[in-house]
Amino acid sequence: MRNALLMLAAGLLSVRFLPALPPLGLLLALALIGLMCLPWRTYLLSFFLFGLCLACLSAQRALDDRLNPALDGRTVWLQGQVVGLPQQQQGTMRFVLENPTSRRGKLPARLRLSWHQGQPVQAGEVWRLAVTLKRPHGTVNPASFDYEAWLLAQRIGGSGTVKQGERISAAQGFAAFRDDIRQNLLNTPAYGRGGGLAALVVGDGSGLSRADWQLLQDTGTLHLMVISGGHVALLALAVYALIAGIARLGLWPARFSWLPVASVLAFAAALAYGLVAGFEVPVRRACLMMLVVLVWRLRFRHLGWFWPWLLALNAVLLIEPLASLQAGFWLSFIAAGLLLWLFCARLGRLPWWHGWIKAQWGMAIGLLPALLALGLPISLSAPFANLLAVPWIGFISVPLALLGTLLSPLPYLGEGLLWLAAASLHWLFYLLGLIAALLPAQTLPAAPLWAWLLGALGAGVLLLPSGIPLRFFGALLLAPLLLVPIHKPPMGQAEVWLLDVGQGLAVLLRTRDHAMLYDSGPSYGDFDSGERIVLPSLRRLGVKQLDLMLISHADNDHAGGAEAIMRAMPVAAVQSGEPARLPQSLNATPCIDGQSWQWDKVTFTTMHKADAKSSNGKSCLLKITANGERLLLTGDIDYETERALIAAGFDLKSDWLLAPHHGSKSSSSMALLKAVSPHSVLISRGAYNSYNHPHPQVLTRYQKLGIHIFDSSQTGAQRIELGHYQKLHPLREEQQRFWR
């Protein structure tokens, strides 16, 4: 039975790695093969095929529920109920609308909406809204959040921007109850830590600041502030221990058996906490494992560590096969499995302090391959920070927050407990800040498959029981994973990455021993692409410092991410076409017209019209020549600057052209295109930008001249091996996923 469940889980997990979903006919054939194999010794194959078919059918159903392309970009009136907890950040309300209806056509079962400067929205309310709808779309980069996968895992079939709306009915139901609890917690005055209390009690982290999230990431303690299985398990064990203690003291009524009552109440407490917290994957896993353990305990049977873990894994995947698309699913089950492996079925009893250190050591080693595979930062301070934070949160902050919430109707008592909980979070964040200042998190370069497999094997060897000899060889196997050689272009060639930053621009240029960044992406509201996209991608590609950051001009879509990059990575120099308009912290110097230099036999030349009338026209251009192959980066220049550059006699001829001003109607004149004579043009823009970039007239001009068009909204990040005379490498094609 155990092997059958393993194969079922393997089948359910396989969908995560498919570049495309099999057609329905093939799935039916596989299901038939599974039925035929069931009575024979090949029955394990049947379980694998059943899991695969079930997951593929579930994924296809979610894809089919996406927004109809005919409604993409259209504004329609619709009506639906708000579910989950709406989030408000910097004047923008974000929420999920369930079962929306419209006269214009069938809509997905769930929509994720944003309302800028809109009315307050509460969970459980019914609204009638005018919404500009969009199909799911996200950026694709060497390292960035996969928004499309997240939407699919949440079964959200579209997004949209609210233009106006009216409330049809007030909040009601359990969702409204959760929202009331959250608002009460957010209003806790002590130390401004109401957002942390809401994260611990109801699983809503929107009240935490960007600085808080960065601190938690740097110290590897993110799992503690977003409801984890550990919180649920602690509450269940506390209820169980309380009743067991009463029975041991002889205070329990003799005519009732205390064990069934303790088991039922422990699971009820875990389930209630999980429901209030939103019942996300870690909570589901903890509740299911707790249920298995308690059922086994009631039957007085010995239970190993593997059965609860395996049954919970299959149960979570059967309930939601797309859970495997989320990084939290993998980290949750791997972390739980590691703890069970480290402490179950081991001989002898360790001192508590020894076991505590062993748990942190084991988690740091065991989660390392998973974090690298998922492209997540590695926190060197995590073992030390968790030694402090896990008991602090588990035995001080969470109990005080839960008791304060439960007793909030009582004057002073509930408020006092919440005040103490907030104070405990304040001092914990202070101490974590001291730790993070010494050892911040790092995103390591992507490792080849062979290095990852050796590293995963090495981590497993290091975590074997202490009685097994030669465990230190695991460190040797782990070394290639941590010491991945950085890919460097050959002498005379350059690697160019046009990153997918939406409606903005960021280009990484790297030679053998140097790296520079041309523009830094936009920063809008609480989203800074320099922090969220550019920096993780640079680190994933092995870039540790920049020799130059060239900001074409000071508009936000080109310069918005610069400060975040400067704070997190050494930058030797900053130049710009508009240095005076940039923040003083960048210490930018002017772009020099006609300046030329060489790095590793690759030539860089700047062009700049400082007397241009517009900000866009003052963009600093950069031409890169590697082994005779040329690329021209143009910023946001307009017709006037294009004419001035041609009249000045600049050699603009290039093989690759970055479309000026994202393909705006006011640029890419026929004169410029003939002067450059590129075989390909690169367009960096957002899929649903409000500027109509690229303009149809500009696209017609490109097509008339036979220029190949590569649009970042369709290709994701784009890589060019300049000087190698090979075609462009679109990341969406190289990293095909069935949900893109």
TrEMBL record:
Full protein name: Competence protein ComEC
Which subcellular locations apply to this protein?
Answer: Cell membrane
Please, one GO biological process term? Answer: establishment of competence for transformation
Lineage start:
Bacteria, Pseudomonadati, Pseudomonadota, Gammaproteobacteria, Pseudomonadales
InterPro entries named in the record: ComA-like_MBL, ComEC_N, Competence_ComEC/Rec2, Competence_DNA_uptake, DUF4131, Metallo-B-lactamas, RibonucZ/Hydroxyglut_hydro
User: Domain Metallo-beta-lactamase spans what residues?
Assistant: 503-685
- Which keywords are on file for this protein? Cell membrane, Membrane, Transmembrane, Transmembrane helix
Source organism: Ventosimonas gracilis
User: Any stretches that span the bilayer, and where are they?
Assistant: 30-57, 232-252, 258-283, 304-323, 329-348, 360-380, 392-410, 417-439, 451-484
Q: Principal place where this protein is found?
A: membrane
Membrane topology qualifier: Multi-pass membrane protein
Q: A GO CC term?
A: plasma membrane
Keyword Mitochondrion carried by entry: no
